[in-house]
Amino acid sequence: MRISIALAGVLIATPAAAHDSTSPLAGEEAVEHAHIADEIWNLLLPKAEASADISVDGNYRHIHADGYPVQPPGQFPNRGNPHSISRKNYNLKVPLVPHENAGATKAQGAVFGIAVNGVVMDPGTAEYWQNDRRSGWNYEALGGACKLGLDKYNAHVQPDGTYHYHGIPTGVLAAEEGTSVPALLGFAADGFPIYGPYGFSDPKRATALKKLKSSYRLKSGTRPGGPGGRYNGKFTQDWAYVAGAGDLDQCNGRFAVTPEYPKGTYHYVLTDTFPFIPRCWMGNPDSSFLRLKRGGMRGDLQNENNLPTVDFAALSDNSKATVTLVQAQGGHPPRFLPGGRPPPPGQGPGFGPRNGSPQPGGRPGAGQGGRSPCSGS
Question: Structure pTM?
Fold first, then answer.
């Protein structure tokens, strides 16, 4: 296995300057005109199983990759994942100097970012309770209800052959010594860097490391409809953002110094608890990422009546600073919120599968004749 020459030395050269610097990060190469001697040398090199090049050209960081990991992936297909890996041809770009917006942009349903090894980060699923998107109850990939067939790197394969991460890419983290330094693992679609779960205790200077904590918590009580039962993390909508409950904001990010950004930068953090990989961007995602799938929905994460707790999926298309809290319903109005229309017969509280478990004699997601959830996500 090898990673291409442009990435082979990632993070071993001189760190970049401030977060608003246009200097390339260590291991990146500026785009240059190819010489004949270089082309001949490239022809003599053996073809790689993995390929990822990160370069800087003008105001953008360009990422060319085939989506295949440097470390040998797990066996695919497997019992939990029936798909085979196929190499891709990613030609992505992100702004070299990203900027934070006043509100967050929803990333659910889109590729969040890409690791330095060229494998994309795509944490969400397309699976809903009883295969009914209108229900609003989206299975959470790492919530325990899904048979994902993940390998030891927290990755598996989509039906189109895309190998992707649902959680911390443990192979990349280990390669970057991610428990001894804040480890740069990749870049989000908006250009901000993505780091591993360990960061400096004091975000303003290089101090002792600590494991950073998400500010998302399980909701208390019982689901108002759909699968019913107590909130237990099997659905994305089981989680709520509680400001100040952890070290990170609603997009699992913070502003802090890192080895690559000694003057500090806003960056995202991957955690081993929800949301694992962030579900929103604080900057503007580049269209090259949005084209990989159907794209994300823009909107602000909002509080209702300035309460400190915010539902994870509280996103809507509204430019105002404060928007009534709603749950994402895939473009459809909420069905089970107070004041909404009642659920269809047999789907209200007391009916159907509970806590994400299958109906008697059935399997999760089988209410509409579908397959077990999440294996293709």
Answer: 0.74
Beta-strand pair 163-165/90-95: unpaired
Q: What torsion do the CA atoms of 161, 115, 118, 155 make, to the nearest 10 degrees? A: -30
- By residue count, the chain amounts to 377
Q: Per-residue confidence of the chain (377 residues) as pLDDT tens digits?
A: 434 434 433 333 333 333 444 556 655 555 444 445 444 434 443 444 567 899 999 999 999 999 999 889 999 999 999 999 999 999 999 999 999 999 999 998 899 999 999 999 999 998 999 999 999 999 999 999 988 999 999 999 999 999 999 999 999 999 988 889 999 999 999 999 999 999 999 999 999 999 999 999 999 999 999 999 999 999 999 999 999 999 999 999 999 999 999 999 999 999 999 999 999 999 999 999 999 985 343 333 333 233 334 445 443 332 222 222 222 223 333 232 333 333 343 343 333 333 333 333 333 433 454 454 665 66
Find, among 311, 334, 374, 294, the residue nearest to 109 by Cα: 294
